[in-house]
Amino acid sequence: MSMLRAIGGELQCLFPMNPHGQERFEWFVLTLKAILVPITVSRTSNLRRAIATLFGVSIAEWRYDTFMASVKLPWEAVWETLWRAIPQPLVEGRLLLALDDSINPKTGRHIFACQTTFDHAAKANQTRWPWAQTLVTLGLLMPIHGRWCCLPMAFRFYLRRATLQAGCLRVRGKAVVFADKFAQAVSMIVSLARCFQTARVLVITDSWFGNNGLFRPLRQPLGTRVDLLSRLRVNAVLYAQPEAVPGKLGRPRKYGARLGSVAECAKQQRAKARCYQVRVYGATREVEAADQVVMLKTLRCAVRVVWVYRRSQWVALMTTDLRLSVAQIVEYYSARWKIEAGFRELKQEIGSAATQTRHPDAVTNHLHFCMVATTLTWIYAAHLKQAPARRYASQSTTEYAFADVRRALAKDIAEEGFGSDCPKSGKAQRKSFISEVMRLVA
Questions:
Q1: Measured between alpha carbons, how far is 34 from 410 in angstroms, rounded to an integer?
Q2: At 356, is the pLDDT very low, low, confident or very high (cuts 50, 70, 90)?
């Protein structure tokens, strides 16, 4: 049984077995297939037309819009099914989770979760305060056929307190309660960690999330099996580990002598730097780095700090997992960049940014569909015996891309789909039609 048929059978069990439930399942799978086939942008209207054109299923416009805004889609169970379907999700015994936030600019009012948001990455010709949705996203980092990939696992819409105070925002009749990004991140990580109860969890973040606002709430439900890997700010102060003084009365010291700021220690550690062979950004490179175990007051525990030196710059990384080697720390943090590539795959290639929906449930369901499609694509890649060939290879880029996996998946969808989701009549005709359209698009 193929991967698509196996997952399709598990997803079918999540829907009621009555006629309405099975019709909802059929439309659910058809929507996923329409997103996965790289032919059109994933607007709701485009998806309905793609379903009619490619798969021969005509759905009334009002019925399909009602389905896309349905409150009966079992997303929690769908995500848990996908989490368990990932082959070999652990990397050296750890679950590597990338955490970051992104913005999704929109045009038009009365769009759910839109607010005036500060964009720190805005270019010179872009506004610093766009009208956009803010997404806190959790992804799974894992190597697939020799390259790091980021599989979207969960997301939350972040709404500022000022936005909620300006107007009462309701979803399904209930007022939206403010939750900061740390609380949203903790809820997603805890849910995912409970699905993998025996695995150690390493959360890889940028410097904004790398503090006790995230680490302390995570340690309460998950204990010592969760650790943090982040980048250090240059002005963070480091302390030596405390030394026990025999015979001294009173409470033992929590911190040793002050070592200085990260920038000051970087100059001192430069003479102790060594060269390591690390796989970074798709190639094995020689990295000059130095490390030291110190105390950090922002986390109130011992951390391993790694200074990575370049020609004229340096970067300081820290982790609470003292068992990680220098090479592992550098490689895992460099793999964090794949979540940024995942945002591009989700917004531009899958087309989540092009949605025109405004209703809260429709906006949320559409993003769920796009993220599930992205994760399914990478799960499909992990089940392939060998990596697909890169379509537009060059001397500097030889690894396969997300679009290459999606193209191979579209061919399998044309062959068999998810099993019981295709009507029996006209199957061969639709199969050849999809293949012809794929050839024209390519």
A1: 9
A2: confident
Q: What is the DSSP string of 13-42?
A: TTS-SSHHHHHHHHHHHHHHHHHHSTTS--
Q: What is the mean pLDDT of residues 216-233?
A: 95
9-23, 119-133, 217-231, 262-276: which has the minimum mean pLDDT?
119-133
Other C-beta atoms closer than 10 Å to the C-beta of 442 total: 9
pLDDT in tens, 289-346: 999 999 999 899 999 999 999 888 999 999 999 999 999 999 999 999 999 999 999 9
Mean pLDDT score, 57-77: 93
For the whole model, what pTM was predicted?
Answer: 0.91
Closest CA to 226 of 283, 186, 179: 186
The b/e string for 190-208 (b: 16+ C-beta within 10 A; e otherwise) is: bbbbeebeeebbbbbbeeb
3-class state of residue 435 by DSSP: helix
- For residue 18, count CB atoms less than 10 angstroms from its CB and return exposed for 0-12, middle for 13-18, buried for 19 or more: exposed
How far, in Å, CA of 364 to CA of 357, rounded? Answer: 9
Which residue, among 286, 292, 238, 240, has the nearest Cα to 270 in the 3D structure?
292
Contact status, residue 232 vs residue 317, Cβ threshold 8 Å: yes
Q: What is the distance between the alpha carbons of residues 7 and 423, in angstroms, rounded to a whole number?
A: 18
Tell me the C-alpha distance between 442 and 382, whole Å.
23
Average pLDDT over residues 410-421: 73
Count of alpha carbons within 13 Å of 151, Cβ hemisphere only? Answer: 29
